Each structure stands twice: as structure tokens, then as C-alpha cells.
Amino acid sequence: MKYRDFLTLHILHHASEEPVTGSFMMEELGRHGYHVSPGTIYPLLHALEKESLLKSHWEVRGGRRVRVYEITKIGRKTLDEGRERLKELCTELLGE
To answer: Which domain of life, per UniProt (predicted)?
Structure first.
């Protein structure tokens, strides 16, 4: 799996739990050791939307317009498949 794949799975996971924003994902990924800049996260979110893994809409939060991303059916399927691949990799690497 590539670095982008891990970021994608992480984004899809959180978007499956609740709608997310780019700033939330930068903070969340930072808590897990990823140092992701706006120049990385926003193009990735847009690419995931273009691939139909996410859909977005605008909301006003704290007086500011923010783009909010939600997972799609295709995104859920991709997340499920990614989880299976990750399980297989962990089993192979950790022997469990």
C-alpha cells in the first residue's frame, strides 16, 4: 500500500462515521503522526470526490463557509475492501 492509500483509508473511515472537513482531517491525521499540509489534504479530498468515494457540500460553521465531505456507497465499498487488504497485510507481517 502506498502512503496515499493509508491517507485515503483514514479519510474514508472518518467520513463513514460523520461528515468531515479538510481541517478536521489534517488535525486527525496529525494525531496519528501524519504531517499533512493543506496543499496535500485538499487536492486529495477533491480527488476522492472526483473518484466518487466522497461527496461534498458547503456549510456555514462559525460564520465561515466550509466544504464538508461525506462518504458515498462506492467509498464504503472501497473502505471495506481496504480494511480487508490491511487485515491480510497485518496478519502476514505480525503472524496473527
So the answer is: Archaea
